[in-house]
Amino acid sequence: MKLTSTFRSYGQNETLISSIRNIIKDYPFESIFKEFLQNADDAGAKRFHVIIDGRSHPTKSLLYGGMKAWQGPAILIFNDARFEESDFDSLMRIRVGGKQDDDTKIGKHGLGFNSCYHFTDFPSFISGDSIAFLDPQEKFLPKKNDLPQRGIIGPFPRNGIRNFSERDQFIPYKDIEGIDFQSTFNGTLFRIPLRQQPSEISDRIFSVNEVQDLFMEIKSNVTSQFLFLRNIEKIEVSSISDATSSCQTDSLWKATINGLDESTRSKRKYIVNGDVRIFQMEIELIDNSNTVQNDQWIIVTGAQPNPEDSELQKYAKQYRLRVLGGVAALLKSKSKSKEPDNLFQNLIFPNYPPIIVNNNQENEELSDFEGRLFSTFSLPDTTCLSVHLNGTWAQGSDRARLLIEKDNDLPDMDHQKLNWNRHILLEFLPDLHCKLLEEIIKLQNLKKIDFKNCISKFWPFPLSTRNHPKYVFSYGCKVLQCILQSETIFRSINSGDHFYQHSQKVYFSDEDNHVDILFKCLSIDNIKDFYQLLRNNCNEIAFLEKLIKSMICKLPIWPVRLNPSMENQSLIYAPVSVGKVLPKEYNMYKTKGEKIFLKNTDKIDIKILRDLDATWCGIHDYAFNDVELPEKSDQQYVDFLDSVLDHAISGFRYVYGHGHGYGNECKIIKDLKKFNFPFPNAFTDDLMPISKLFDYDNMVFRTVFGRDSNVFLHFKLAKHKDKLSNIGFNNKLSSEAFDKCAKKIEAFQEINPPPDIRHRGFVLVDHFYEDVKKYELEKFDRIPFVPIAKFLGKPYDKYYDHSEVLDCFNNIVHPKYKGVAWSQKALIAEDVIPPLNALEIYPSLGKPNDIMVIKHLKFLRNKIINDDEWKNNWKETFVSNIFEVYDWLEGKCSNEKLMLREYIKENEPLFLNLGKSQDPFDTENWVSASNLVLNVEPGENKYINPRLAKYYEMLKSAGVKEVKTPNVKIHVREHDQPSIIKKVLLEILSNQMSSLHDIVFNVNGEEIWASRIVLAASSEFFHQKFTPGEEYANSNQVTINIDDDVSPTSIRILLHYLYGQNIDNAIWKHQNTTNQTSNFEIYRELLVLANNYELDHLKELMELKFSRIVNRSNVNDILNLAKYLNASQLEEYCNRYIEDNENLEYS
């Protein structure tokens, strides 16, 4: 058994139904009209008639019993051309049309017939001697050889159908367009029964009324459907009412080409490569309301060999495409009806430029004409041009999707379509468009058309207000390029017939070139609209060819910025090529000579000008090379400076980011100074250097110069004060600005000083103190702007006379130095006394110099000494002044080595050496340096009073001599007398046999000797006892018996303590310190002795020592002892000890 015997059929398959469904998805249902019309034109038909048959026909005698579906209401489509044999075959090839190999046919895909399946499931047709019925669902036609049939075709009866057994099947065709079933039918009639219920092909069901409405809508643009057809001369749509049994038709509308001669027919039908055909057609449209519309069109068609590009050649060959197309313009349209008022209603149609009625008229009403792309018939693509464009576009099978806009994301196949279509649009049609315009201008010159300005009317660009595709702008540029190269056009233009009077609003050169001539034919509104169109297409400019860009640059379409220097102040538009671009942020001013600057209102303008390689003018070049500086200020100049300063930081580069940076802040700001740019002030039209202008907002400047002074920078420029400060503007009180303020106050004092000049000085000085660190005092310390004290009060006013109100810092005295200089200089006013922070930086501020103080001393000695008022009332003040001066001079001589002898003569009596009279006004008390000697004793000659003598350095500096002490050193050995005495006394105490003892302590029979002098000196108790009349007053030996229970050791310790030995050393020397029991006894005995002999210090020492040995076993004993001996501190300590430890047991 062979393996192949087990195989079965297998493979991909697409049913007829699914194929039809997929095809009609690409066709809108209204396309049925165009598709059948195109097929008719390709077949050479001249008439095309659509009949909407609302009748339902008999179903008794049919070819087959199941063919009732073919008998209902239908769309009948007639053309007067018969099918060729090949046409019958091609109609049945669902995916491959019969015109695939014929590039003279309009429709090459052969799929248009399938558009009928939007409406029907059972189409049929008659052509010549044949009739065909189609049933793609294979439901209603009888089977053949047990196989379903998709359609049947055969000859129709030739002897009429009256007695024909299947007559009902043919009744729907009877008498339609002369069908009599007795002779060959010289035409083709399609019958498309309307679908009555949803089917596998489509769910869409159309009523007769819907179909009728559809074909009535087609009427609106039917005249344009003739434009690029080759054969059709008449199109009609009729209807047959469902209420009649006859085939009487009622015309809904019909369109006819009138007066078509054979020459025009030939131009329509045949196009040869390289040939351009221009012809006119008048198309008449009559509708069922008896309205007649007549449209006159002019059409240019042409063909070219395939493009030189190899890829495009390959694509054209593969898809049998030719470079073929045309351009059509509506020259005239009028309508008439039975209504008298509308007998001739002219429709002003072109969508672009307005028509001029006379030279003073700029605008006319525009029609609703809307240019479209055509592929024989109009496509959905609206161009908004004043013409229709036809081409052999690379389309999809639906003939609707047209790729022209650039798109890098397209697949390769679509890129091929795109490149082909753009070739047709941009390389082929523009020349035809130009030829069309040449012919229209010729017709206008011959007065065969009634246009005032056909160039304006048929301008190859859409209105900027229309929503046009991007490619239309590129197309218009190509057409404009062709126009400018057409000598024919410019020979035809006559200034009187075509030119507008622009009244110098548009820039034209003196050359009278093609651009100038052409644009004189456009209105201002045309030019304005072209500029706006350029803005609308700003993203396309960069991709235009270099020559196109160059052309646009030469067109006088760009708005001009008003330049005050221009003679022609009416100029509105100029070419980009003759102007410069100054950023809109910069205000303009008068320039040196007449120059044109272009407007750039926003980023769109900037982008376009950038893409057109316009000449950029940076603010630096404009300001320093172009602007003419004024002699007086005006608002335009202020605005200009404001804009320059506004953008001095970022510059042009920052704003537009295109590398056109012209300088930066440093360059612009510095050059304003370098080129001596004058600046306006706030209150007059005077101009002055920036270094002479001040900030009005600064209170100090405003006070010093006066609120209405002409030294303040114009208010509008004040916001730039930080920048201007770099070139000398006084926006802050710098040291230089302060100096200017001080000098201004000085100048005010020369003639008619303002009444508030003292206040101005106050404000300036006060600010100096506030920010004293940043100023250099030496730069202005000799300028008189500092307020001085007007009065000093009594007794000074008699000699303090200063008529001026201001003085300089180096010529006035701080009030604290009043006493040493008030007669020589004015004092600083109380309100502007230098604060501490100022004096820390300038310690000499307001400080008199040495010569000033010496002069003041001489003034006091020579002038005041003779003043009776001072003598009688101000003696103390006078003396105080004198000694203040001496204090000053003493400090100077001591610290700064002032040499007074250089300023005071040796015999000059300037030193007040008060003697017996103590009168400072007594001239005898005033002596010279030669009459004084330092260090002499009272009573000696030239003795110096101690009050004066303390000014040693001053006197020495003045030349006063002194008694000198010999330089002999007397040595004194080291000697500690108290230690020696204590040591000797203890030695005497230790020597009990010393004859110096005169007191004996008898302690239990043991004698211990001591001295009464030492005891009296050490103890108030013994001192009292040894006083005459007291117990131990006996001058002889005295014995003191110790009756208490006191040991000799304790007496010895007591005596050593009284003789000056430290108590601890005394106890240590006489008792073993490690024996705490014996220490207890010694402490007790010493406490008893201290109590008996009233030795409070010793008593306190023993209280302290007892507190250190208190414990639970002895606290009660010590407490009792303390109470007995009145040791209050020890008693308190023991009580507190017991309280704090009350939870413990005590023995």
UniProtKB/TrEMBL annotation:
Report the domain of life of the source organism.
Eukaryota
Species the sequence originates in: Diversispora epigaea
Query: What PANTHER family does the entry give?
Result: SACSIN
The record, for InterPro entries, names:
BTB/POZ_dom, HATPase_C_sf, SACS/Nov_dom, Sacsin_chaperone_reg, SKP1/BTB/POZ_sf
Please state what the protein is called. BTB domain-containing protein
Kindly list the organism's lineage: Eukaryota, Fungi, Fungi incertae sedis, Mucoromycota, Glomeromycotina
Tell me which residues make up the BTB domain: 997-1067
Listed SMART domains: BTB
GO molecular function per UniProt: Hsp70 protein binding
